[in-house]
Amino acid sequence: xxxxxxxxxxxxxxxxxxxxxxxxxxxxxxxxxxxxxxxxxxxxxxxxxxxxxxxxxxxxxxxxxxxxxxxxxxxxxxxxxxxxxxxxxxxxxxxxxxxxxxxxxxxxxxxxxxxxxxxxxxxxxxxxxxxxxxxxxxxxxxxxxxxxxxxxxxxxxxxxxxxxxxxxxxxxxxxxxxxxxxxxxxxxxxxxxxxxxxxxxxxxxxxxxxxxxxxxxxxxxxxxxxxxxxxxxxxxxxxxxxxxxxxxxxxxxxxxxxxxxxxxxxxxxxxxxxxxxxxxxxxxxxxxxxxxxxxxxxxxxxxxxxxxxxxxxxxxxxxxxxxxxxxxxxxxxxxxxxxxxxxxxxxxxxxxxxxxxxxxxxxxxxxxxxxxxxxxxxxxxxxxxxxxxxxxxxxxxxxxxxxxxxxxxxxxxxxxxxxxxxxxxxxxxxxxxxxxxxxxx
Amino acid sequence: xxxxxxxxxxxxxxxxxxxxxxxxxxxxxxxxxxxxxxxxxxxxxxxxxxxxxxxxxxxxxxxxxxxxxxxxxxxxxxxxxxxxxxxxxxxxxxxxxxxxxxxxxxxxxxxxxxxxxxxxxxxxxxxxxxxxxxxxxxxxxxxxxxxxxxxxxxxxxxxxxxx
Lengths: 441, 163
Hints:
Low-confidence stretches of chain B: 1-17, 39-44
Low-confidence stretches of chain A: 377-383
Number of strands of chain A: 13
Oligomer: heterodimer
Largest sheet of chain B: 7 strands, antiparallel
Distance between the termini of chain A: 57 Å
């Protein structure tokens, strides 16, 4: 039985690279991509790093560089990045029967089918094909466990002479050497809490973590921590997740482009988030029995305010009008006129499959024209029951076909001044006909 | 079940609301004077006998399937300019670009020249690499070691609307 062999494929500066595919000067000219509402830097290319800019730096601090150093700026363009990610993942699937899409720009591939001596060459081939087909440059780290593959990938990305590929499968001496130079904080699975605890105990490298006694790890970091340590030792404990896990909650929230001080606008925002979340529920064939709303003011200003309210539904639902009713009622409770709202969100929990919805005692009473009529087990189901489902299916189909929110609920508002600001967004080069690249002829 | 399909005529008045609300330009009133009955079914009606075509039904023809061989590597671009009219590519046309194809001599390609996307025919003339136009008014561009050059993808189809 072959032991596991996993590759971690990671796109280099993914957001910046996605922009550069369509604006090729960004391969060499400095570029930063900004977070929602153009607040801070979420991605930067090599040339921008050389200017001294850092990730999460507030945008206003680098604004001057736009003039002085020819720094280009782009707002986050999720339709573009999502599409480019799908293309990269699709291209990776031809190289392995098992691909786990881990995040928008990372994937694990099983490489058991590749001969050990050919693995590095195979990885270079994967890089070349992904680059040619999609334009996105990637790095690949290969090892017998996910955690070690992450280590290999990190080293491959930052080393000058490795050419973005590193295979450390079963190379124990090499693994030892690399883990000794890697900070314990950089180990996948070690967060800030455990990081602090380990550093306080003198465990500052990945190697020291790996060599801790099992009982100590089990006691201080639980079975989850033990799995990470076992993985560092080359014992694969985290299998490839080829089927995404069923979600336990669904949230849609946004930071507003400008503060919301009027009740109508807050209601419109909450209604829009609810409609979007309900659409996502229907798309995954789920329904919710618990809905909560939260609102907050700006964390960067004085008198930070946060509040939330929750409602349970008697019967699970993914029908937008029903959910809107609950959401707007909760919004009434949360509204205050002395607060400048900067962010709001809707969260659905207690999710169930939509085809196993348990009707409550009260549902039978609502069916026929508001006259209380108790259905018996032997009554045939009326067409009327199907109508809400058909209405939402029609709305969803039209919105997919024409574009998002072509058909919307009145409560969502038409002007939506609170929408996220994105002053520097490039075209959606691959998802909108009117925004495809224009080539000179 | 039947529904009425009614013709309509525009009402003469125009409603204008104040500048902060949505502008209503014309109001239509339904005219029920002429009606057409159309059959409308909510539930599919099962015919008395099965269709003879049942066993031979084929899928619909799909342009996507026909034109796009490598979906993950296929992109659409629009043309601005007339240097390739000789090849049947006109300004405003839609081009299908396949990045998965290996560019060969004679292919029409999208190339990145000095940071810009451009469309030309690729010519290998011995050691020399040329980007050639398909219009007498444009001369070929030779690519040497000083030109910033890269092939972006191979153009497989041009879609030119006729009406």
